[in-house]
Records
---
Amino acid sequence: MSDLQRKRILSTAENLVGRTRELDALMRHAKGENSKPGLMLLSAPSAGATELLKTAFDRLFCEQKNTIPFYFALKKTDETVRQTALRFLQNFLQQTIAFRRRDAKILNLSGDVSELARIAVPGDGYWIDRLVEIYQNESETNNELAFVRQALSAPLRAVAADTKIFVIIDDLHEAENLTGETDFLAELQDVFSNSGLEFVLAGRRRFLFDAMRAHYEILRLEPLSFSDAGLLAEDLADKFSVVINGQTRDLLAAQMQGNPQFIKFMFLAASERRQNLDCFRQIEKIYTDELFGGRIGRFYDDVLAQIAPNIETQKNITGLLFDSLTIEKEQTPIEAWRKRAGLGEKDFYAAINRLNTSEIIRLSSNHAEAMKENTSLSDYIAARFRLEVMGENRALTVAESLSSYLKRAPKTIARVYRRNSAIGLRELLSVFDRQEIPLALLDYSRFRDEYKGAPNEELLKTLAKDAEKIRLPQIVYSAHTMAFYPPIEQSIEKERSAVAFGFQESKYTDEDETIWITAEIDSKLEAAKDLTEFWCDRLEVVALMCNFLNYKIWLIAPEGFSPEAVEVLRRRNAFGSSRKQIELLIKTLDAEAVTGEKLKANEYEIVIPMGEDTEMIAAQTIEEIARRHHFAPKAINQIKTALIEACINATEHSLSPDRKIYQKFAVENDKIVITIANRGLRLSDKKASETTPDEGRRGWGLKLMKTLMDEVKFEETDDGTRISMTKYLKTVDKQPV
Amino acid sequence: MQTTFDVPVQTNGETATVFANDYLNKLSGEKIERECRRQLDAGCKNLVVNFAETEIVNSIGVSILLGVIDAASNAGAKIVFSDVNDDTIELFEMLGLTNHVKIVPDSCR
């Protein structure tokens, strides 16, 4: 069982995918390892903050006995401050008693607090009785502030009785909706900031915490990364028995934009319909259903309904959002929104703030614009606008929407693949810090003349000895070019162009200031003169429009630049580099950690049919792979032999229904890992007589694998076997020159 | 050199040399075994299995070779594995073949 697969009490997810770092941060905070007692969790909407916090609660509940965990979430249905404080107190009593009695079932009881108090452990009796008194006297307490303070201070009574408490308060943005004389949030702050308790306040990141942030540790919860969203999709596919493949997994991850809730909605829907998500058509069909009256549609319906209960107001807001999404001028003055919303001033500003907190719109200096980058929101608004504002035919709207989603799907995926293959220019520039590097790492013509074609191992050594060096500037700020000049997005993906501000000599003068404008351009062969001029022009427009005075253009083309293109670069005092030079530059600057390992693609997969001698195809493949990665001939032969034995093992013993052997070869810095999987009988499914070697002469395959490889692991899957074998790279045999 | 059932063989008096191919698996192993038995039945007293062309032997191939060794022993014939490369020798050692048969390494590699 992994660390994250523990007993579930409040949480619902079996595996918390992609949140290990955040969960560890919460656990460290619970142990008092941070310098400030308060931690603020600022999360994007639907990023899974509640599941994360509940998982932290479950771990604390199950795995230790010293600190009582307390989880409380404000609800949409909380109406008044007093009511919320009362619920806070009741929850605290219930969870404390459940923890002390080590009985999670108490959390499900719906009895009166005095009944709960009867089952409290005797040692807590005094302060629990006092809290019960406060709870029961609530209706007699006219002073709301006093009652709220008493209720929120409940955990402090436990602390005073020498009991450790870890308080988690979730969904604080719902405090906006509470009515009453008391400011719930302010009181909460006041009570806990001076309490000495470790506590967590969690809510939507745009909720106004600015005034409070300085006093807290900050933990941000973003939508899942592309790879984690893919892992979540695989996890849910297993859980709901929905078939996906690599392409559909990536499309789900990309289209849902890392929203774990929406990814789950897709699998719930597929499971209910007994359908798979194994092609784009299926995904978009389910997505369309989910948007038009399914869970995704209802999610946004609820958000809008909470912000504006009146249907006509919702229509007005939908119209405003649609215009913001579709017309050229995205930012509209707030006053224009107010006129069209049809709300009184107070209600309007409350609604606009909630739209902002829910990240339906973005507010900036008295303007508002819809969050165009949110695909599902844009789709929802377009659908709702057509149906409710324009009154269009539903079947037509659904059909046209589905069609447009299908047409969009391949472009969505292509964008992701292009983004993921980007070098990471912004990150690379950010590590420029006046290092001295060989000029040949930036100047393609020099690199081509003196180093192109040289073996990798020798390149870095030889470059290091190159006398002609250049000193990089000290970069103080870097960002995607789009952030400075949005129209550049029409020409290039965000991740493939960056601007960096710096100083050449760290003198911090106007003369010393330098701005690098970079772009990764596409060209199958060496980039030609026209292409180079085109891009130099584009980037010079950026410099002109942003008023950059002292700038340097740097173009990167996969195969470098033609001689004519080099001349263009020279005339414009620009740098031009190939992808190879960038790889070497990243190694020279030790920047793999910031740019990521995007440039390597050392994973190979093949599927071979079971049959006579087909294992030789796999053996020849692994031989070629191992040779490329400088494994010694002896090791290569050992790997081949072990792989052949694994293939024979699968062929002879599995009774595989599809007669296929699935193989993956992953080369890392110092090892090769071979995974062989097949469907069919597992070792535990075989009868005893089938596993006894015949006179000791058969069944040698396993012995050979274990002897020839450094590590061998056998795993039974739901429907077959997986063998992982690892061989470590040792001394490379090299022929003397 | 004769080639019967795709297995090259060379005979010289009471000595027969059977040539294994590049990949000794079940199929090629059985062919070699058949040819070796045929030679033993024909009165061969010195049986050589030549591995000069053999790059890879799998465990099934090894088990079949054990059968050949047994057959030679039962026929009262000597058996030698010749021109065996280092990797194959390592394999034979792992599986205990070297206890039952004389192995002449491939000195040319």
Note: The interface with chain B takes residues 612-613, 615-616, 619, 634, 637-638, 640-641, 644-645, 648, 697-698, 700-701, 703-704, 707 of chain A (CB under 8 Å).
---
Amino acid sequence: MAIIEQRPLELTTGAPAVVERPLGVLTRPQGSTGWKSWLFTVDHKRIGILYGGTAMFFFLVGGVEALLIRLQLAQPNGTVLSADTYNQVFTMHGVTMIFLVAMPLAAAFANYLIPLQIGARDVAFPRLNAFSFWCFLFGGIFLNTSWFMGGAPDGGWFNYAPNSGVLFSPSHGIDFYALGLQITGIASLVGAINLIVTVLNMRAPGMTLMKMPVLTWMLLVVQFLLLFAIPVFTVALFLLMFDRLYDSNFFNVDAGADPLLWQHLFWIFGHPEVYILILPSFGIVSEVIPVFSRKPIFGYPFMVFSGIAIGFMGWGVWAHHMFVSGIGPISVAAFSLSTMFIAVPTGVKILNWMATMWGGRLVFSTAMLYAVALVSMFTIGGLSGVTHAISPADTQQTDTYYIVAHFHYVIFGGSVMGFFAGFYFWWPKAFGYCLDEKLGKIGFWVTLIGFNATFGPMHILGLQGMSRRIQTYSEGQGFNFWNAVASIGAFMIAFGVLLFLVNVYRSWRRARDLPAPGPDPWDARSLEWMTASPTPEHNFDEVIHVTSQDEFWHRKWGQDEEGRIVRIAATEDVAHDGSNTDVHLPSPSYWPIFAASGLPLIGYGLIFNLWFAVVGGALLLGGVYGWVFEPPDDPDAAHGHDGDHGADHGDGDGAEPADAVGDEPADDEPLDDEPAGDEPLGDEEVAPVG
Amino acid sequence: MSLRTLRIGGFVALATVLLSGCGKHPLDTFDTDGEKAELIADLFYPVLGVAIFVFIVVQSAIVYMVVKYRAPAPGPDDEVRPGGYPDDEYPGQNHGNTRLEILWTIVPTVMLAAISVFTLVSLFDLDDVEASEESLAITVVGQQWWWEFQYHLDGDTESPPDFVTANEMVIPVEVDVPLLITSRDVIHSYWIPRLNGKRDGVPGREHPWVIQANEVGRFAGQCTEFCGLSHAYMRMWTEAVSAADFDVWVENQLRTQPVLVEGDVGYDGQQLFVGNCQSCHVITGVTQRDRDGDGTPEVDTWDLYQGTDKYVDPAILTAGAAPNLTHFMTRQTFAGSFFDLYDADGDLNRAQLEAWIRNAPAEKPNNWENQQGMTPFTGLTADQVDDLVEYLTTLR
Amino acid sequence: MADTALAPPATDVHAEEDHAAPTSTGLSNDKLGMWVFLGSECLLFGGLISTYLLYKNRLPEGEIGPDDVFDIPFTSVSSFVLLMSSLTMVLALSAVQRNDIRRSRIWLLTTAMLGATFISGQVYEFTAFYREDLGYTTNLFSSAFYTLTGFHGVHVSLGIVMLMSLFVRSMKGNLDSSHSERVEIVGLYWHFVDIVWILIFTIVYLFPQ
């Protein structure tokens, strides 16, 4: 593959070196302000913000779709949407919320925070990172243009064959699904490779795996899930695409095909996908709860290993989506058992969060409220999950609103609550101003109540027999009341989200009158708080040598003789102020967006007219060509050094950085698999601090 | 938009309160009336109980901690951080407790292991079919957007069915009736919540399932696997009748419809039906199609294979992929069981039936241009529609 | 106050005399990235192979199937050619590491040529099958077969492009022992593609139908 970056980024300040100018390269984009600096950026923080902003935009799109669904179902025999439109709307609601909201929001946090939490300058492959974002954006736009090109996908996000075939869905909608998700799949896969390498390879000296923050751990597990799940979905989408566009036979029942092939491939991807959606939020609250409980995370190694266990077990439960598909009682029994036991590591996490809060001094900031709401709401989703892991009960519940209730408690009550906790928590870090707490708390309660009003009644509706994906129901079916309640709740959620947006705007307007929050507004624990807010472009002024988990907190706080926690250093003395501008950074690049822009054109080409695909292919190839011949660093940029490519970094610049003192060698410990780390574990043991 | 929903919601809420107690839930999974549904409920209730218990414990613990460990509000002199931090004080730092961790790994594991034992037992019970006097078996075929039931009175689903009906399955009460569920186009799911869970009908596959009712009655169903435009409108009924009534019903179903001759009531309608409808619909004994390809259509009659072991293409009963309308008037509903055939007084729901015949896509969403769903017959005059309905009323 | 808490002395990890990559694992990012990517590729081919296994025996009576078209001796030869290319790839890497530019060029080119021979064999095979009326849309077996082997062919072709890029680089005098890791990474990919072919050849061609 030609699109691998040429070399790792050094975590160093360095003196400029004489470089050789590569041939045949356009002038590099430069500058760090203006729209161009965003378009061509390779800075992981900007890419994280781009991911977040785009995902929030799609969140509004998916939210409008949700409101349309709830309007249609607010009363029996609804006439807001026709059956055809309804099918498109609920399909796109699911596709949007999963692929264009939850996954990219996780990517936003991952991009912004992983390098900061492990004390790195950037991700391993900065341009690949940009490429990943543009693939996601163009894929999302491509998918949504289907609305204007003959209709959106109408087969549900699960898109079961053979209903997804040309015979039963003759519009181009499902072609858009197959190609659009392929494009966003590239984004996820490339991002996963990038972040895995980043976490494994670019940790600050001393930052062993078992000293990494839980969020980084959970995001690492998610990247591995993506790495292995996306290609399975890729295969499924290719088969679907070949069937639809080139008349192959993979889902052609007349030729002897088995429609369950799609279901297996889809859910082998689709179930790990569920953990891809939830684990990032598990990580986020694992950061938020300790900070606002003023205690370290309880049972750190158990938090980490339960996350890994969920990641592994997530591969052995996919067929619980197929209990009524006719896979045979033995398979049903096996998957029923495996599904039940995946509740164990999840339960361990919930209990550990609670144990973290136990005996703490809980500060109910908005972030903490959302985090506690996750613990509480996700528990409901987890428990209802156990009630349909028992497969006989699932034969009554599957494809009813009971399931809709369940997974909204998991994905909204889990993922989305976690993301909002993350927004309120890291907003000052990313933008240099805090979101308003008062408005935030009002928004939280509106959202929480609206959420429960929307999805709580769906448990009842499902058990009363209301099927999923039905465009309407009849007067005599007894579904009227709770559907009306759910619809009211949906508009409450919408109002809650609106309050969040208002909060963002208002807090930004008022920020200039308020004192800056400083590097560490919450008295937090992990490395990202050790640098200025908003994070300077170069992240840290100097390399951080890590000696313990929660390194930053341990630099601020110690123990006195009686074991009380006392401050040993002011935040300002410990945190970097971002003043070191003499840091070498990867240069912006035209090529990621250029190459990615070819992908949707290839998509349109395959659907409508191959000439588009020729143009798109040319863009992609040209982008990759330019990329390969472009060194990662611009020799003309201000702090460039070591401009030649490849593995020959470090040849010319052995200069000691000015601020390097002492002679302690870099402690680049390899993979540390020992769970104990330097946090002794024992019953009733209060670990030493400082 | 929000206001409108509020208005609707308020109205519906008010109406529900006023009508409280009258709420009927024909698809209620709790209102069980079949052994299999009871088996499922008996498993579900205790698990739900455990879940609610855990829910209460967890939520109470959270509420307790929120109250008990809340940091004191900042005093007037305290410097307040952006998050509302009053203090720089830290409680005792506790990093974990291995014993506790092991405890709360093992306790849920044991609980789930116990649940899983019951699950496995129920799971295999669910597939059990109790032997009975009746050797009846029914092949259930899902199709966009209605259900076909092929009755095999000898229980042999390999051979051609004895008769075929649509949307309403009649079964003898208290007897386990084995079903074989499949589909002709996309995946559908057969679900009578009060009698049993659901099972998908997948094209190219046949899935065994069983249906049984403890009491005489009509039990509603709904297709539960998304199957395209009219998914919401794809419903069905199962009617459990006494053994004696079942025999009477079977006797009637086995009867071939007579071919009407000029002067009979409904003759004009029959001719229209044969001219317009028989390429899709079958009325055993009346519709004609050229099965052997010799250029002359034969009459589809029961006699062709009644009582012989000569193989007869089951397509005779099902050809054209629209509901078999033999004995149409013995059903209570039509069009994927979405419309009632009779009103509350037992009179024919004539207006709806005529509207359906004239323009089906206007009544239920379909995609007839793509051969999905019934074609509109807007060219029929009012008299012709009257004639057709008159003919249908003879199909008893 | 800030006695022990201040940052330990920052050392320029990069400046250590050791040329090894200054990464936590000791592997360079590029190489680790390729390993991770290949992990993902395993699942891609896993999915395609599973699809083939599911469908190869689902032929209606009388349909044209594997037994009718496969020419095992021919495919064995082309498989052997691809396997040999792994050997020449190893030789190319070793030559680069020894800074033996001339030999490295020869072996890189040989590897690419062997790969191209394999692809030509595949093109010939596909054409022959098509002449025997086994089109892409003919039946389940043909769709699954062409998709699986086609995906592999595309991977080999990409490998050839990478090898040729290395070759062109070398001709420009830009591929000496200091760039050996680049050859190593392409080699990783190339060996992976070969191993996948061994699997495909065994499962598709050699297993009894």
Note: DSSP finds six helices and no strands in chain C.
